[in-house]
Amino acid sequence: SLPERNNLAGVRHILLVLSGKGGVGKSTISTQLALALRHSGKKVGILDVDLCGPSIPHMLGVQDSAVHQCDSGWVPVFVDQDRSISLMSIGFLLERPDDAVVWRGPKKNALIKQFVADVAWGELDFLLVDTPPGTSDEHIATVEAFRPCQPLGALLVTTPQ
After folding, report:
1. Where are the domains of the chain?
2. Mean pLDDT, 10 residues at a time, the chain of 161 residues
3. Which residues are 116's β-sheet partners?
4. Cβ(154)–Cβ(41) below 8 Å
5. What is the pTM of this model?
6. What would the CATH number be for the domain defined by 11-157?
């Protein structure tokens, strides 16, 4: 069998952004954190695996971008001229970005695994992972997929109530 390519080899730190429920501002926090890290001179990738509502392409004004394939997988979309923020989102793969994705668990989990393995990030200081809301199978799939890379940690977004 072919040796598994490691598209995360050039990524220094992985940070998961999680929430117990939807609508708490997880994608906004992920986007703001990416912009703040870029402002401090870091190269940042955002992996938007929020299958139900991929809003980050819209927040960064790249919702009309297309994702291309290269030898080592999908090429993320560069958000800015100096290519300091790259983004991969399920939104780029949907026919109409506003479509809700209704898939059964195994298909979602397979897509998340593919997203983790098959995006050619290159060299990054930080990879921010915007996860789906809640505490479902997708979270377990996401965390399991990143476990070999030993993530730096997780940011849990909550609201006062």
Report:
1. 11-157
2. 68 91 88 96 93 85 89 91 92 69 73 85 95 74 79 86 73
3. none
4. no
5. 0.87
6. 3.40.50.300
